[in-house]
Amino acid sequence: xxxxxxxxxxxxxxxxxxxxxxxxxxxxxxxxxxxxxxxxxxxxxxxxxxxxxxxxxxxxxxxxxxxxxxxxxxxxxxxxxxxxxxxxxxxxxxxxxxxxxxxxxxxxxxxxxxxxxxxxxxxxxxxxxxxxxxxxxxxxxxxxxxxxxxxxxxxxxxxxxxxxxxxxxxxxxxxxxxxxxxxxxxxxxxxxxxxxxxxxxxxxxxxxxxxxxxxxxxxxxxxxxxxxxxxxxxxxxxxxxxxxxxxxxxxxxxxxxxxxxxxxxxxxxxxxxxxxxxxxxxxxxxxxxxxxxxxxxxxxxxxxx
Length: 305
Description:
This protein is an alpha+beta fold. About 40% of the residues lie in helices and about 20% in strands. The protein has helices spanning about 5-15, 20-25, 30-45, 60-85, 100-115, 170-175, 225-235, 245-250, 280-295; strands spanning about 50, 55-60, 90-100, 120-125, 140-145, 155-160, 165-170, 190-195, 200, 200-205, 210-215, 220, 240, 255, 270. The protein has a five-stranded mixed β-sheet with strand order 4-3-5-15-6, covered by helices on one side. The chain has a three-stranded antiparallel β-sheet with strand order 13-7-14.
């Protein structure tokens, strides 16, 4: 008889690519994970992995079986959540990924409040500007900015009207002057952060109903977008970031929006693997964040360039 735990370990081993990684995630020994997979192979009379001293990969049979195993686990989780109902006490582990700036400065107090309201729920928070893979990484849900292919994901909308804005500190503008056009950005110090290991140095704007891409450059680059925002507040240059990241600085006068700030659309979604949206914890967290985020667009600059 196939064991539920063996199926779970097979799916996570396939996603992470090694017994050791799956074992660390499950707080087990690698030998225990290998034994679970071997037991599953015996029950199915299938070879699921090709093993060597340096690699572990799915066999052709393993590739075919994997989506069925994933669907079965999702169905069992869904059934469990439906039986418990929305009012049941939340428990277990919820693993959440978020961009660095948004996570630290906007979401953190809400996530802490959510966990406090559900004391038997363990929250694991991953803050990074590297895009989390909700299938491979140890993540249940991810806060994700921007547009992406939704074919493989369930995207729960949080703030579809969000977008990037162009801004700088008053001290910088006093020293360097205020750019009067997008072309003038080439003569300014632009603060660049990295996305997926590459500098985001081609900024997109909406101008007269069309999209305009402006190449920029600067002497300060960081893979943490929160650091780039702090550089901007310190007067080091012009920044182009999500309104959610800079709204408090603009309201406090630490940053000033330039040229109406009409950057490209940057919707915020809560992303999870197929069927995970049926989890009561995810649904309740989504409802909380959607309620708190919506008022933040009230003073989003809206003048077109």
